[in-house]
UniProtKB/TrEMBL annotation:
Organism lineage: Bacteria, Pseudomonadati, Pseudomonadota, Alphaproteobacteria, Hyphomicrobiales
PROSITE patterns in UniProt: FIDO
Keyword Hydrolase: no
Native species: Rhizobium loti (Mesorhizobium loti)
Protein name (record): protein adenylyltransferase
Gene3D superfamilies named in the record: Fido-like domain (1.10.3290.10)
Amino acid sequence: MVYAAEFDPLCYPGTTVLINLLDIRDQAELDEVELALFLTRADEPLPAGELDYRHYLGLHRHLFQDVYGWAGQARTIRIGKASSWFCYPEHIASEMARVFRELGNPDRLADLDGGGFAKHVAHIVAEINAVHPFREGNGRTQLTFLAMLAEHAGFTFNADMLDRDRVIQAMIDSFVGSEAPLEALIEDIIRQSS
Ligand SMILES: Nc1ncnc2c1ncn2[C@@H]1O[C@H](COP(=O)(O)OP(=O)(O)OP(=O)(O)O)[C@@H](O)[C@H]1O
C-alpha cells in the first residue's frame, strides 16, 4: 500500500516506488512480486525467538528479505495513511519497548481464555499498528505475529477468517480509539486447540 510520506530516500528519485533488491520501478509490478515473495517466506518456518521486539524485527526481516535491503530495520522517516500519522521515527524503539512490556511474558497468554486473549492481544496489535515501525510490510508482519502469539497461547489461528476489509477497518477503528472490532475479529479467528 502506498504511503503519504515526507521526501523519502528509500524511493527511486522523483517517485513513490521503494528502491528494491529486484530493481523493479513499476509500483504494480513491485506489489505483485513483493506479495509473491512474501507468501513464499510466510510459508517457511518462521524465525524462532522470544516474541519480543527483537523477534518482531527478525520476523519482518524474514518476510521481506528478498525485496528490501532494510527488511528488519525500523523506518527513519515519518509516514501516515489517510488521516492517521504513525509514530515519529525517533520514538519507535522506545514505543515498541513499551508495547512489548505491556504484552508481558508471552507464556502467560496460555492462562487466558479466548476472550481474554483477544482483548489483551487486540490492544497490543493496535499499539504496534499505531507505531508502524517499518516503512512497508506492517500489516502483514502484524498478522503473522498475531498468528504466532495465538499459536504460542495454544489457540489455532484460523486464517480463513481473515477478511481483508474487516481487518483494515478494525485497525483504523483501533487507531481512532475503539479496539472492540479488532477484539471481536481476533476472537473469531482463534479457536481453542483440543
Ligand atoms: N488509515 C489507517 N489508520 C491506521 N491504520 C491503518 C490505516 N490504513 C491501514 N492501516 C493499517 O496499516 C496496515 C498496512 O500497513 P503496510 O502498508 O505497512 O503493511 P503491508 O503489509 O505492506 O500492507 P497490507 O496490510 O495493506 O497488505 C494495514 O494492514 C492496517 O493494519
